[in-house]
């Protein structure tokens, strides 16, 4: 990896595709197996779409992380949109405020090892996920 | 705008998705397919997703929609070639793709479609 962190804007639908491709490349560089790659890329796709649709756009920041001998990929999806009023509801299966199936957040959460949601109404949302190798 | 090509072969429509689709492209495929089923009177739709590296909730929903819409338009849809890692991820994501018929490859998919057609539409009623 050239440097171990960077940023990608998520402003257009095409950026969601770019986010998927970027995360795929990073996961490959970290030596993730095919199933782990597919999981983190799918999670990234859900979260990037949320950033675009609900957050009104934002960015993806990533970093490679280590914990002892473990290596992992950490992704931050950050927007300055309306925020999430009811976090529990947003994380519940089958619920959605937009046009999705309601799988975006809870689905992405199941596909990663660590999941963190920071949100404030009127300020924005930051979702941080980590997948360890 | 880009489009996913739809090939017609007799009473079948064949689609091979070979690009990483943005959401609007997936939606236009849904529209194009339903339009083509109506226009051609196709009885079977085969969608090859072997080139897809991921299926997220949006693309999964598109696949389920096409399957349901085609049924209402008197056609059957079979999805073929899903990669094992994609299947594993879909289940963990929480998408069951209920009502979507799948086959491992194109050949088995075509066999499945033919069988379904014979069940619902006996051969002697059809113009071969």
Structure description:
The complex is a heterodimer of chains A (133) and B (128). By secondary structure, chain A is of the alpha+beta class. Chain A has a single domain, classed as Heat Shock Protein 90, CATH 3.30.565.10. Chain A has four helices and five strands, in the order βααββααββ. A five-stranded antiparallel beta sheet of chain A has the order 1-2-3-5-4, with helices on one face. In chain A, β2 and β3 form a beta hairpin. In chain A, α1 runs antiparallel to α2 and α2 packs antiparallel against α4. A five-stranded mixed beta sheet of chain B has the order 1-2-3-4-5, with helices on both faces. Chain B is α/β, with parallel strands linked by helices. In chain B, β1 and β2 form a beta hairpin. The model of chain B has no long low-confidence stretch (mean pLDDT 92). The interface between A and B is medium-sized, with 26 and 23 residues.
Please give the CATH class of chain A. Alpha Beta
Counted by DSSP, the helix tally of chain B is 4
The radius of gyration computed from the alpha-carbon positions of chain B, rounded to a whole number of angstroms, is: 14 Å
Q: Could you tell me the number of beta strands of chain B? A: 5
Content-based structural category of chain B:
alpha/beta
CATH architecture of chain B: 2-Layer Sandwich
Identify the CATH homologous superfamily of chain B: STAS domain
Amount of beta strand of chain B: 15-25%
Helix content of chain A: 25-40%
Given as residue ranges, the uncertain stretches of chain B (5+ residues, pLDDT < 50) are none
Q: How far do the termini of chain B sit from each other? A: 36 Å
- Total number of strands of chain A: 5
Q: Span between N and C termini of chain A?
A: 15 Å
CATH T-level topology of chain B: Transcription Regulator spoIIAA
| Assembly type | heterodimer
Characterize the main sheet of chain B.
5 strands, mixed
């Amino acid at each position: 990896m050239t440097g171990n962190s960077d940023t990608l804007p998520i402003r257009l639908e095409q950026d969601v595709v770019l986010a998927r491709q970027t995360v795929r490349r990073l996961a490959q560089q970290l030596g993730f197996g095919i199933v782990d790659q597919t999981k983190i890329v799918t999670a990234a796709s859900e979260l990037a779409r949320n950033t675009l649709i609900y957050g009104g756009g934002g960015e993806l920041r990533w970093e490679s992380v280590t914990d002892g001998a473990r290596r992992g990929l950490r992704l931050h999806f950050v927007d300055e949109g309306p925020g999430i009023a009811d976090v529990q509801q947003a994380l519940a299966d089958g619920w959605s405020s937009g046009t999705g199936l309601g799988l975006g957040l809870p689905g992405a959460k199941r596909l990663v090892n660590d999941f963190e949601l920071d949100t404030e109404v009127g300020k924005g949302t930051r979702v941080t996920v980590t997948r360890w190798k | 705008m880009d489009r996913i090509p739809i090939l017609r072969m007799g009473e079948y429509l064949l689609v091979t998705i070979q690009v990483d689709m943005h959401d609007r492209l997936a939606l236009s495929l849904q529209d194009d397919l339903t339009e083509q089923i109506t226009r051609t009177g196709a009885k079977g739709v085969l969608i090859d997703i072997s080139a897809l590296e991921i299926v997220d909730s949006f693309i999964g929903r598109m696949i389920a929609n096409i399957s349901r819409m085609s049924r209402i338009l008197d056609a059957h849809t079979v999805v073929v070639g899903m990669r094992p890692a994609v299947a594993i991820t879909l289940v963990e994501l929480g998408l069951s793709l209920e009502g979507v018929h799948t086959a491992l490859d194109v050949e088995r998919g075509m066999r499945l479609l033919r069988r379904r057609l014979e069940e619902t539409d006996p051969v002697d009623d059809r113009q071969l």
